[in-house]
Amino acid sequence: MFLPAQYEFFCPVKTNSGNRALEHLPVELDALNARKPLIITSKDLSGRGLADVMADAFKDSGLTLGIFDGTSPAPDLKLIRELTKIYRHKGYDAIIALGGGSVMDAAKALNIVVSGRPEDLERAAGEDRMMKPLKPLIWVPAGEADGYESSKYATIGPLNFSSPYLMPHLVVLDPRMTIQENIEKTAASALIVLTHAVEAYTGPAKNPMTDAYAYAAIALIMTHLMDVMKIFQNEKGCLDLANAASMAGCAFSNSPKGLVHTLGSALALACGLSPGLCMGILLPYGLEYNTQKHGFHTLELLMPLAGPDVYAGTAGSLRSRKALDILYDLQDKLVQASGGMVPRKLADMKVPKEKLTEIAQTAGGENITGWEGGLSVLEQAWQGKPATPTS
Fold it and tell me: Taking Cα atoms as reference points, which of 117, 185, 111, 195 lies closest to residue 154?
């Protein structure tokens, strides 16, 4: 186990996972001194009946709750103002985000405003500008995630936020809510979660606490992703992927943003692509680069990727190569399982090769490797050819 000379780790997130976990929400709200939650979700999730399942969990609680299902795929300041009026006019005292991605972003932004003043939202943009804890925030995963839900990060329009106070107080994982319905989104969600967990587990800032969260997230994805890709109604598999998303977000919050995350985010923004699919393609190429150039802890990655038997049966000098080969092989399996909906290389996503330098330069401002290293990774991922041939 790698133990740095000093490290910090902060995770305020409590987790309830399992059958009928939703029915424990009234008790958990009481522990948070909350009696009137506002549930925020989307039309899609509401239309699937998930908001009704949520409401039924409160039917004998005596609590009053509200449901807002008008969250858009790209929440903006206008939406937050509307939510603020609803929250304050009706006297709500807690927020439950039913769903991931934009739903959780809206919930986090709303929590900043209702925990202070409207103008605090723009003042809080940036890193660690929140000076006090916020009101109770609960995340209930429902289907796909973007990898940031349980993390300290949020985005509303042009505003980006980063603060440990944005992490939810509670994550409730109930198999009735976590069933996947879209093969491409399922893969994209799992791949961004896998990227965050792998970069936290192998990076130079790793420590025993990030290892615990990242290890579990990686193992859960590798165990269940392919099963869920084949059978969406696999309740255990879907629940375990949701657990992985929550765990990886906690590890990601306590680690610097890695090369693959940074490149994938820049690539997705520049080309209008799914960040998860971009990171999934880039992951083994970026990890191989960091292994060779920066001595990342890749040999230890074989354990959560493949389990103790494969780890023990692989010579120490070959474990890094084996781990990388497993990630390359995962790409091939996803292409096959999705019927080509999940791409194998950046060229398959119609990424213009002439834009790679610009994307690498954009990402290089945020990453220790500089843009030349990023460009090398992008070029390999565009061609689908690793620097070192797989075994």
Answer: 111
Alpha-helical runs (H) found in 231-353: 235-253, 259-271, 275-294, 302-306, 308-312, 319-337
Q: What per-residue confidence (pLDDT) applies to 170?
A: 98
Residue 58, SS3 per DSSP: coil
Is 101 inside any structural domain?
A: yes
Local confidence band at 369 (pLDDT 50, 70, 90 cut-offs): low
In 3D space, the residue among 353, 360, 325, 331 whose CA is nearest the CA of residue 344 turns out to be 331
| Residue among 317, 324, 297 nearest 388 (CA) | 324
**Domain co-membership, 252 together with 153:** no
The reported pLDDT for the residue numbered 275 is 96
347 by Cβ neighbours in 10 Å (0-12 / 13-18 / 19+) ranks as middle
Structure confidence by residue, pLDDT tens digits, 100-124: 999 999 999 999 999 998 788 999 9
4 inside domain? no
User: What is the rounded CA–CA span in Å between residue 129 and residue 122?
Assistant: 10
221 and 313 fall within a common domain: yes
3-class SS of residue 143:
coil
In a shared domain, residues 159 and 32: yes
**Mean pLDDT, range 295-312, rounded to an integer:** 96
* Together in a domain, 234 and 354: yes
* Distance separating alpha carbons of residues 150 and 104, to the nearest angstrom: 9
Higher pLDDT, 391 or 243: 243
Residues of the domain holding 200 = 183-383
Alpha-carbon gap, residue 134 to 130, rounded angstroms: 9
Residues pairing with 40 in the sheet: 68, 97
Contact 258, 286 (CB under 8 A): yes
**Whether residue 368 has pLDDT greater than 50:** no
The total number of structural domains in the chain stands at: 2
Length of the chain in terms of residues written: 391
**Tokens found for residue 325:** 């080969």
The C-alpha atoms of residue 343 and residue 340 are separated, in whole angstroms, by 6
Global pTM reads 0.95
Please indicate, yes or no, whether residues 218 and 89 belong to a single structural domain of this protein.
no
Give the pLDDT confidence of 53-92 residue by residue, as tens digits: 999 999 989 999 999 999 999 999 999 999 999 999 999 9
Is there a contact between 13 and 165 (Cβ–Cβ < 8 Å)? no
